[in-house]
Amino acid sequence: MDVMEAIKTRRSVRKFEDKPVEKEKIDLLLRAAMQAPSAHNEQPWEFIVVENKETLEKLSEADKYTTAMKNGTLAIVCVTDEKYFFSNTNIWMQDLSAASENILLEAVELGLGATWIAITPLEDRMAYIKDLFQLPDGVIAFNMIIIGYPAKVKGFEDRFKPERVHYEQW
Amino acid sequence: MDVMEAIKTRRSVRKFEDKPVEKEKIDLLLRAAMQAPSAHNEQPWEFIVVENKETLEKLSEADKYTTAMKNGTLAIVCVTDEKYFFSNTNIWMQDLSAASENILLEAVELGLGATWIAITPLEDRMAYIKDLFQLPDGVIAFNMIIIGYPAKVKGFEDRFKPERVHYEQW
Fold first, then answer.
1. pTM of the prediction?
2. Is residue A39's pLDDT more than 90?
3. Among residues B20, B18, B15, B36, which one has the least CA distance to residue B104?
């Protein structure tokens, strides 16, 4: 699938078929994530792959806005570890965001749907997920992406706004 | 071009041919950016398109690590405005990162090369860019992406690290 087609048809999907994501597709999603650009090519990411229904249910209970987490068959929790930090600026959030967007677009190519649910910088969610996975100090959960075969394919919604573009100056 | 092929062949490109990027391609890059996901679908982004050689030169002088900015024929400076902020958490950085990654991947599809150069959260760069474009209070420059026809096409570099993947638990 063309890049632009994937970008245009990517929508947040929160309802899924009861059909597991094949191992080969999980592997491709992780490969897509790890090819992302990162500051100083630090690649400051790790990933927790969750298919266990009980854990997906627990992820959905982080707060009232995370309920979609139980609907999918697969979640990828994107995590960083301070040990990768070259500097103490928070550019790692940009790196993990690029990796996450790669996952979302590759999901579209594979016929999957997904939704990116933030963890950082929401302190209550961060504490809940840290406790759930017993993450050691210095390990920070960034976001959780719920994935699966979409129950319904949403159409293209044009978000282009020409007034948001400035030429040469503000 | 397939999504995975674009993800795999995307590399940071800092040397470019002396050939302008066509208006149609600039439009596609901006459309790709604005289709990105964002928290609460806020779309908290604006873009400054720079082709003027003198301005590219000035962008390159932000500090000693931004010199590549003068090599391209096009820069897109991704900007946010506090007026879009639904909440005061800094999730906008994630939204603008997703938009930036869309630009990088669409650039590959269009035969272009690009490099993402951070502005936020580096205070000196933020101040320099704010001054250069005379950005009003509340308008924050996030990053600048230098773009052009690559002088040399770099090959695929496999960044997959299986040890970065955890299954079901940390």
1. 0.97
2. yes
3. B36
